[in-house]
Amino acid sequence: MRHGRLVTGLSLLLGMGGPVAGEARLDLSGGFLPDPMTRTMTVTASLDAQAWVRGCRGFGPEAPALVVELSDPIAALRFGASGTGLAGLVIAGPDAVYRCALAQEGEAAFLRVDPQAAGPHAVWPLLSRRGDRAEVAVWVSELDGPTAAGLAVLNGSAPPAFGLLAFGGSLAERELVVSGDVSARDIDAACTGLIASGRPDVTVRTGTPVPALVFSVLSPSDTTLVVLSPSGVLHCGDDGNGWGPVLRAAPAEAGDWGVWVGHFETEGAPATLIVGRDAGAVEARLAEADNPFRGRRIASAVAVLEILMAERDLGRTLSYGRIESEGQMGFTLHEVVLRDPSGLHQPLEVAELRVQDLDLAGLAAIGVPERFSVGLHGIGYAALVAAGRARGWPPLPPLAGARTVSLDMGLAPVAGEGSRRDLSVDLRLDGRAGLGVRARLIWPEAPGPVDLEAMPIEAVTFDLRDTGFLNAVLTGAAASRGVDADDLIDGVVSALGGTFGPDTGLAALREALAKRAEPGALTVTLATDDPRGLEAVLADLETDPAAAGRLRFDARYTPMP
Q: How many other C-beta atoms can be found within 10 angstroms of the C-beta atom of residue 465?
């Protein structure tokens, strides 16, 4: 997921925990012994795994059960978990990408990621039901998984079912039909899905070595990937992003790469194999293919709603009593009900959902509107507290009286800055507090498809307008963890220092949070002049601490009368 570090930083700021504060810890370097390294722990299932990876199933603990800290990069690292009631495993690495591996029929869950960068790797074992408590064994290994017999079953040198794909550019695709009845776990315990034996689905040929190869699959069904390198190294992947499996091999040698697309009892489904040099380009292609608006004539905002209801099954999650048109570019839905399609959570009632200033031309041209405004108004605070409790969110303090919450989101061009857009989110608790988040996006100047989620961020500002609500939230979050609020703040600031660098103005944040009991407004801004955006600078920090000099961090607390 893109922008993961910024989301992690915001979560930490609000006391929601993150991949840097686990209950157990392993400090490892290459060639560690014993291998595998195993830790046993008791896990309480609380959070829905779909909050981390769409399509992942099961429930994990609020904080990582284990944090594996690598002192140096490792070519391949395998994670595994076993225990009664185990549903799967979620891993978040230093790249802030969350990966999921599911256990099948009560078996162990395995996940392999190549390569593994230095830094913290957070591990959440998943149980089948929320509230379950079980003892789970988690292990970490550098050892290769596939056996010689398993590789023989693959027969990667055989003619591929869907032909040879010569790769020499930046992106290539091949259509295929998913098939196979051999469990990929018989080849390697870290692999999932059913694949065809005896030949690859596609052979990808590279004439020269390249810095990286990224493989992914576009399909309406749940798919997996098995990739065999020219030198016989096996790579496996399941749910790597919101669309399907993603595998990255770096560096990528020249030669023939055998590719198998796996499935879970959906044989015969159409699929498209996508191969690229850059993960961002591959994910942009996936997002483009998943877009129902690009290249389409759209008459009104109401038509956009109709397309989503008919073609994206929006009716499973949203229903309403009546609709009121507000011209060509807007509408208001009244008596709205938002539902969890899994049925795990209670529906949430909203008085109205309002869409305004929707850029229909941008939707048709590039698949993303260049401006819009969406508001959810009249959400009952008590219902929101109950929904948060069911999802394992940090506890919200009880408030007397019938209070409502409103949420407004918008995207707008910046005056005089054709290559900048402001993305804003404003959450208001009537009469008590408000949280505003504004991100300045670097908009591409060249025409073509736009991936809003992958766009570079120049600056992000969090603005908490508060009359004591922040203090109540932090106090409740600290109590739920059995720590003092000041100790929680110290941990939050230290964790942010590990993410953003220790010399980026975090002392100002600590000082501002110390005033949390006073009614006021807390404003936090993180910015950079680097044209690649904050994500790129934060990625540089993993190997170059001096990159912190390209960040500007500001925090202040302004008392309110």
A: 21
Neighbours of 264 (CB within 10 A): 16
Place of tokens 């990159």: 547
pLDDT tens per residue across span 395-426 = 677 776 668 889 999 999 988 887 889 999 99
Paired with 459 in beta bridges are 440, 527
Q: What is the DSSP string of 419-468?
A: EEEEEEEEEEETTTEEEEEEEEEE--SS-S---GGGS-EEEEEEEEEESS
Query: For 17, left (φ over 0), alpha (ψ -120 to 50), or beta?
Result: left
* Closest to 202 measured CA to CA, from 248, 260, 286, 154: 260
Q: Cβ neighbours of residue 29 under 8 Å, at least 6 residues apart? A: 70, 71, 72
* Residue 266 to residue 179: CA distance in whole angstroms: 8
Question: In angstroms, rounded to a whole number, what is the distance separating the alpha carbons of residues 421 and 445?
Answer: 12
Q: Which residues contact 100 (CB under 8 A, 6 or more apart)?
A: 49, 52, 53, 55, 56, 88, 89, 90, 111, 238, 239
- What's this model's pTM, rounded to 2 decimal places? 0.57
Written in H, E and C, the secondary structure of 491-529 is HHHHHHHHHHCCCCCHHHHHHHHCCCCCCEEEEEEEEEC
DSSP letters of 186-234?
Answer: GT-TT--SEE-SSS-SEEEEESS-BS-EEEEEE-SS-EEEEEE-TTS-E
